[in-house]
Every structure is written in structure tokens, then in C-alpha cells.
Amino acid sequence: MSIRVTYSGFISLIIGLFNIGLGIGFTIIVTRTLDVLQYGTWGFIGGIVVYATIIEPVITYWTTREVAREEKSGKTGIFAGLIFSGIGSIIYVISVLITVEQTDAEQSIVLLGIILVPVTFLNRVLTSITIGWRPQGVSYGQIVFGATQVFGALFFVYFMKMNIEGVILTVTTAYVISILFYINYNKKQLIDSIKIKFLKKWVNLSWISMYPALGDMIYALDIMVFSVITHSVIGLAFWTASTMLSIVISNAGLISRAVYSKLLQGKNTEFVQDNVRHLFYFAILFLGFTITFAKPGLFVLNPEYIVAEYIVIFLALKSFLYVISGNLRTFVTGIETVDTDKNSTFKDYFKSKLIIMSTLELIQSISYIVFLSITISILVLTVESQIELVTYWAGIALIVQIPISIGSIILFKKYFPFKFDYKAIIKFSIVAVFVFGITHLMMEEFLEYKPALIDFFPSVVIFGVFGIMAYIGITISIDKKTRLLVKSVLGEIRNRN
Predict the structure, then answer these.
(1) Residue 280, pLDDT above cutoff 90
(2) Diameter of the chain by CA atoms?
(3) Residue 26 and residue 245: Cα distance in Å, rounded?
(4) Each residue's pLDDT tens digit, 195-231
(5) What is the C-alpha to C-alpha distance for residues 349 and 356, in angstroms, rounded to an integer?
(6) How far apart, in whole angstroms, are the C-alpha atoms of residue 155 and residue 183?
(7) I need a surface site. Which of 74, 239, 298, 450 has the fewest CB within 10 A?
(8) CA atoms within 13 A of residue 45's CA, in its CB half-sphere
């Protein structure tokens, strides 16, 4: 089972760009239909779902590694996912009962969100299986999910006027359809019986898989911390809308989706250097795009959110650093082989790269939540504007990300002793500043902010296409390796066909 990194990465990236459109379509329907309080409540529900599914890595952490090494643990993973989703549902209810009364969210609606927990669990388990042997398949599943979301939102939210209940039903339906897709896609990985040996291993080594999840668990407290301190979910509406735009940058990481699985197979690591270069290329492109289109992007979602422009910019910079450093940490864990030795001891695991990388994330999460809690607790006494509070929140997220990103790069270079192509990174950055600077000036001069979506959105698309094509065109013309990259991608596609 050979994984083709370039082919899988670009298939994932191309489909990911299409998924951006589907995601934006869904978000536009929701933000243009729900008021700020309702959308903030949806963001609150999303935060609790993240917290309720935090134990999912006990399964998914190992299924990806095992499937990549041709061990048939898929069916056992699905079985375990059903069991663990029950635990997650209990966590969800407890979290709601503890926090919701301290906010202005409606408890009955938030409790309805519990139906998202089991489908989220199963979707992630099946995704982890797919990454292990056919990484590009995840992108296909995301298209199924995204398309179902759009049609579901049109029916339940826009036409049926079901508000938040409609959003919950839409997302649940999208998860169910994507789960059915993944089951069919992974048939070859689900042919073996349920094996207790995998369950025993996952439970016995849960401290390893849950150690990185501990960082995620603490980090995911931010939404509840902010809501409880401010006694409102209004700010979450602006945070959620801004996050939807800034996560565009995370799609740059799709170019590296197959690297982890390839490294797990124990092959050479020379291909990683080129992939890191590709990662910077697309991350810089998406960063420039997101910052430039922060204001018009928010206006597309809902004119009320346009005041959150600086929140998007802070979150975009944070997302850029995260997508780079997060992928570098993942690459390092990909070359760790301690789990292939059945005689590995607690000490061996504790000293492994699996723990070292997770420790960085844990430090970041603790620093972030402590800094956020103290700062917002002080500011809420003097600052009445929710927008201003959320802006400080985004600033804190960025500040905490910087040192962790530096640390991740240092550790990565320790285990992958090749030099970053700084010349290319600077070149890409200059082109991005030039292209998107011109695009910004053109929009300031010619873009009219008309409330009707049909009158405004097409103009934004035109400017967006111009910026992206200009960046790609200029970099191809001035950079030899980028030209070779394009040729190699076309060659991969021809060979595949």
C-alpha cells in the first residue's frame, strides 16, 4: 500500500478549495437567517461538542497509525466509537448543566445539540481510518458533508425557518450521510472482526493518546470561559463568524495530509523538505487572501459582523502559525516507532516524540486559557463592547501561538536536519504583499458594499479570483521549483488516469 504524497496532497487541496465554497455557502445561509444571539448560541453548542468529543483520540490516534501499517483495526474502531460516544454524551449534558445558566443561551436548545456527539465521534473514527491508507478520501467525504450541509440548510433553516434547531438537524444529517460514504469507501478496512486486542491496547495506552488530547481539552475551554465570564453568547457570534473566515488558511495543511501516513510506513523522509516548501507556499497565499478579504467576507456573512474585521486578521495570523507549526509537529510524530515495539516500556513512551510534541501543545493550551481568563475577567469590568472583548480574545490567541510555533520549528529541525528554503518563503511573501496589496486598493476604490447578497457577492468573487490567479501566475513565472511543482502535479494526475 503505497501513499503518493504529491498526488494525495493536491487532490486534498483542490477538493478542499471546493469545500471552502460549500462551507461559506452553509455559513451564509445560517448567518443571514439567524440573529446574533442565535448564532452565538450555535457557536456555544459547537464549543461544548468539541469538549464532549475530546476522548475520541483514544481510538483515532491509534487507528491511523495501525491502518497505515496495514493492521485491520477499522471495525474495532467503529465499535469503540459507539461506546465512547455514550461517554461523550454524558460529558455534553454535564457541561451544559454547569455553564448554560450563566449565559443568555436557551438551555433546551443547547441540550438538543447532544445529537451531534455520536455522529461526530463516528465521523472522526472513519476519517482516521481513511487517513491511514487513502488520505485523499477524507476530502471526498468532506465534499459529501459540505454539499449535504448546504442543501440541508436551505431546506431546514432558510425555507422551514427552524432556526438553531434547523442548523443542528442539518449538521447531524450531513454527518450521517458522510458516515455512510466513509463506510462504503473503507470497505476493505472493515472486513475483519472486532478484536479485543486492539481495545486493550488503546485503553492501556490511552494515557499517550489522551495526553495530546489534554491540551485540546484545555484549549477548548475558551468558548465556555469567555461566555461564563461575560454572561453572554453574543460575543461568540462574532468569534464564530471570524473563525469561519480564518480557517480558510487551514486548507493549506491539506497539501501535507499524506505526509504523516507516508512517514508511518517507515519510508525515506527526503520528500518532507519539498512538502514543507509547498506548505509555506499555500499558507502564505491563503493568509494574504484572508486578511485582504476580511471585511468583505464578514459583510457577505452578515453586514452586522463587518465590525469584526480586526478579529479576523488576528485569527488569520494565528491560523497561519498554527497550520505551519501543527504540521511540523505531526511530521515529527510520524517518524516515531516506539509503538511498533511490543516490548516498549512506560519510560520508552514517556521519552518518545509522541510525548514531546504533545507537551508543547499542552504548554500552549494552559498558557492560553490562563491568560484569557485573567485578561477577560479584568477587562469585563471596564469594557462593555463585546466586539472589543472578542478582539482582545483573538489577540491573546495570536500572542500565545507565537512562542509555541518557534519551539515547534526548533524541534522539527532537530529531527529533520534540512534547511528551510528561506529565500523562497521571502519570495512568496513579497509576491503576496504586492498582489493582495493591489487587490485591497482596487476593492477600496471600486467595491460597493450593497446589502443585497446578489449585488455584492459576485464582485467579491471577481476580486478574489484576480488575487489568487495573480499570486500563482507571478510565482510560477519567477520561481523554478514552483513551475516544476505544477508540472509534477499535472504528471501525477495523468499517471493516475
Answers:
(1) yes
(2) 67
(3) 13
(4) 888 989 898 888 877 887 788 888 888 999 999 999 9
(5) 10
(6) 26
(7) 450
(8) 26
Q: What is the pTM of this model?
A: 0.85
Residue 288 makes CB contacts below 8 A (sequence gap 6+) with 432, 433, 435, 436, 467, 471
Place of cell 475558551: 222
**Residue 443 has which C-alpha cell?**
476593492
State residue 259's pLDDT score.
Answer: 81
Q: What is the pLDDT of residue 204?
A: 87
Domain boundaries, the chain: 5-420
Neighbour-count burial of 91, counting CB atoms closer than 10 A to its CB (0-12 exposed, 13-18 middle, 19+ buried): middle
- Asked if residues 226 and 372 have their Cβ atoms less than 8 Å apart, the reply is yes
Residue 2 has pLDDT above 60, yes or no: no
Long-range contacts of 430-433 (CB under 8 A, 24+ apart): 431/471, 431/474, 431/475, 431/478, 432/284, 432/285, 432/287, 432/288, 432/471, 433/288
Residue 482 Cα distances to 280, 383, 447, angstroms: 12, 48, 32
Q: Where are the alpha helices (DSSP H) in 153-270?
A: 163-185, 196-204, 206-219, 222-230, 234-246, 257-264
